[in-house]
Design a protein that fits this description.
The chain has 326 residues and is mainly alpha-helical. It contains 13 helices and 4 strands. It has a 4-stranded mixed β-sheet, with helices on both faces. Helix 2 packs across helix 8.
């Protein structure tokens, strides 16, 4: 008789038990508020742009386009819009019947422990061979097919609990809302930059003198804008670094959420596996002479996730004593 494969220690036993749903399903923690505040300069720049265009094109009622744009932020929580966003921008798909059968009990276990109504969220699949998952929009939890197929149920539960922490802490919706309201300003900046580069290229074919004169005029205009609106320009320039710092704190809070539900050992193993996967990819690139550069200080400051050692250090206090708890 063939020997049965050993059961992974992080496979869960799913018990049918009564659900105790918490009264408050979501909160807006300090990192979510931080994201919203740091997006305020971008929102202000976009608001000024939209207002300027509205005043120019809509003499009789310039406030209507502004009001419509502000109200459009509600689409972040609109289920059909979320589905469109997930399908067309995140390239996610609905789980198959078999995938839903595997995810269902695991998600129920996570949400039962958290006291959350799991029906408030939708689980989606990303066709990827990477080990990853993420919280998106207002109600979406995405997980890669690799994670679904390869991770033991306990480790997959730890990953889902981490993403649930992003939702219940308000990280997902606040980040998307800030991104949405920053789009007009970002689009305008891309257009201006392309126009300036185009003018510089054209002027270089005419005369170096014309190029110098154009650069001088543009430089004076830039200095004038910075000195006049420094209270908007400076925060906009600093915002990416500050937002990255807040994002790293949000990751640690989501780790803490998963650990509080009893998934700390599972999450540690997943993080170590992700780190090993990244190291293997780097080694493969080294082997073919395409080794990536080590990230510099600025790149580290712009990283949205803490390094492995920081995350393991914060999870250490939640691990049980003994060899199994590292």
């Amino acid at each position: 008789m063939p020997q049965q494969p050993a059961r992974h220690p992080h496979e869960l036993d799913f018990e049918q038990r009564r659900a105790h749903i918490a009264r408050h399903q979501r909160a807006t923690d300090i990192t979510a508020w931080g994201q919203l505040l740091l997006h305020l300069p971008n929102f202000t720049a976009s608001l000024l742009l939209i207002t300027g265009i509205s005043v120019t094109l809509f003499d009789n009622a310039p406030w209507i386009p502004v009001a419509v744009w502000i109200a459009s932020g509600a689409l972040v929580f609109h289920r059909p819009t979320e589905s469109f966003f997930a399908t067309n921008f995140l390239h996610l798909r609905r789980p198959s019947a078999a995938e839903a059968a595997r995810l269902g009990p695991i998600w129920r276990e996570v949400t039962l422990r958290a006291g959350i109504d799991g029906a408030n969220y939708e689980l989606w699949i990303e066709e990827s061979d990477g080990l990853n998952a993420y919280a998106a929009a207002g109600h979406i939890v995405g997980v890669t097919r690799f994670s679904l197929d390869r991770l033991p149920s306990g480790q997959l539960a730890g990953v889902l609990a981490h993403e649930l922490g992003h939702h219940t802490g308000g990280h997902a919706w606040s980040g998307l809302l800030g991104f949405w309201y920053a789009l007009p300003g970002r689009f305008a900046w891309v257009v201006v930059r392309k126009v300036v580069l185009g003018l510089m290229v054209v002027s270089s074919y005419i005369s170096p003198l014309v190029t110098g004169a154009l650069a001088l005029v543009l430089g004076c205009g830039l200095v004038s804008i910075v000195t006049t609106a420094w209270f908007i320009v400076l925060p906009v320039l600093l915002a990416p670094y500050l937002l990255a710092g807040v994002s790293r704190q949000a990751e640690l809070r989501a780790d803490r959420h998963a650990a509080a539900l009893g998934f700390a050992p599972m999450l540690v193993e997943v993080l170590e596996a992700m780190h090993a996967e990244g190291e293997a990819q780097t080694a493969a690139l080294h082997a073919v002479g395409r080794a990536p550069r080590r990230p510099g200080t600025l790149a580290k400051l712009l990283s949205s996730h803490p390094d492995l050692h920081t995350r393991l250090h914060h999870l250490q206090r939640h691990l049980p004593p003994g060899p199994s708890g590292h």
